[in-house]
């Protein structure tokens, strides 16, 4: 039984693009129809494989950004091999291959009951958004704090959804280059003060580029968070 479940996760499945949503000028959410998808936990990711007409293949990992369906949010990396295809070229109905779900460590389970601090840098919001959505879907009483760092307000993914009221969820935006007019915090990298109002006794999930994850983890450790309760995911 366990072996069948594992080999199912390792099998490549043909996924067809069912819909898209432009999150920012450089990022797009893609929803795929995947026959026989086994389901996933918030925080897990998939491998996506593209195959060119000459047989050349390229494979990258993308976090699942919602519970219950295969939804990915991809940031276009200039000169990247895979991400520009997913943000600019693929059309509804086109296939890709998908394998997963992958990862059992960087996951949030609705039955955990504990408070949670989420720290996102850029596209690192994707798996954390899956956790926020899973919490809402489950009607969980766990309190969530999200600290979300982007360069500018135009770089915020899921902006409308994060603005909507979600009792028990607190969202703090940190802008590193440009903040809205009158914003109380001057633009700059994450700093200890950004966590002042957050919880101390909680599970922590940090996701983003490697440098961001390392400096955010250092800040949480300096604040006294238990290292065993800090989970990180690096996008490279
Ligand atoms: C577990 C996991 C989950 C991930 N989830 C997501 C996700 O949800 N959304 C998402 O957009 N990406 C995610 N990534 C990153 C993704 O796998 C690719 O690395 C990214 O899309 C770039 O691929 P590419 O083929 O376009 O660029 P490549 O051809 O691989 O690289 C082109 C150039 O861009 C640089 N580069 C590669 N990745 C990044 C990056 N993330 N930021 C800045 N520069 C980079 C490379 O060093 C290289 O110089 C995830 C990575 C991991 C390991």
From TrEMBL:
Q: Which superkingdom heads the taxonomic lineage of this protein's source?
A: Bacteria
User: What InterPro entries does the database record attribute to this sequence?
Assistant: Cbr1-like_FAD-bd_dom, FAD-bd_FR_type, Flavoprot_Pyr_Nucl_cyt_Rdtase, FNR_nucleotide-bd, MRET, OxRdtase_FAD/NAD-bd, Riboflavin_synthase-like_b-brl
Give an example GO molecular function. Answer: 2 iron, 2 sulfur cluster binding
Look up keyword Iron-sulfur and say if it applies: yes
CDD domains, alphabetically? FNR_iron_sulfur_binding_3
Domain FAD-binding FR-type positions:
10-108
Does the record bear Metal-binding in its keywords? yes
Q: What keywords were assigned to this record?
A: 2Fe-2S, Iron, Iron-sulfur, Metal-binding
Names of the cofactor(s): FAD
The record's annotation in PANTHER family points to: NADH OXIDOREDUCTASE HCR, PROTEIN RFBI
State what protein this is by name. Oxidoreductase
């Amino acid at each position: 039984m366990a072996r069948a479940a594992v080999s199912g996760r390792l099998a490549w499945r043909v996924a067809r693009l069912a819909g898209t949503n432009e999150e920012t000028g450089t990022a797009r959410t893609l929803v795929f129809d995947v026959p026989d998808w086994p389901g996933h936990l918030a925080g897990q990711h998939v491998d996506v494989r593209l195959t060119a007409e000459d047989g050349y293949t390229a494979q990258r990992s993308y976090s699942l950004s919602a519970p219950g369906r295969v939804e990915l949010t991809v940031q276009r990396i200039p000169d990247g091999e895979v991400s520009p295809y997913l943000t600019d070229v693929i059309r509804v109905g086109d296939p890709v291959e998908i394998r997963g779900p992958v990862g059992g460590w960087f996951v949030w389970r609705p039955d955990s009951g504990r408070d949670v601090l989420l720290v996102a840098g850029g596209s690192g919001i994707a798996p954390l958004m899956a956790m926020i959505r899973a919490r809402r879907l489950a009607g969980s009483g766990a309190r969530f704090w999200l600290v979300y760092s982007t360069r500018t307000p135009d770089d915020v993914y899921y902006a409308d959804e994060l603005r909507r009221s979600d009792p028990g969820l607190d969202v703090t935006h940190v802008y590193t280059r440009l903040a809205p007019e009158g914003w109380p915090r001057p633009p700059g990298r994450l700093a200890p003060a950004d966590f002042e109002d957050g919880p101390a006794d909680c599970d922590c999930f940090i996701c983003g580029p490697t440098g961001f994850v390392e400096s955010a983890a250092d800040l949480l450790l300096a604040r006294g968070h238990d290292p065993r309760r800090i989970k990180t995911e690096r996008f490279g």
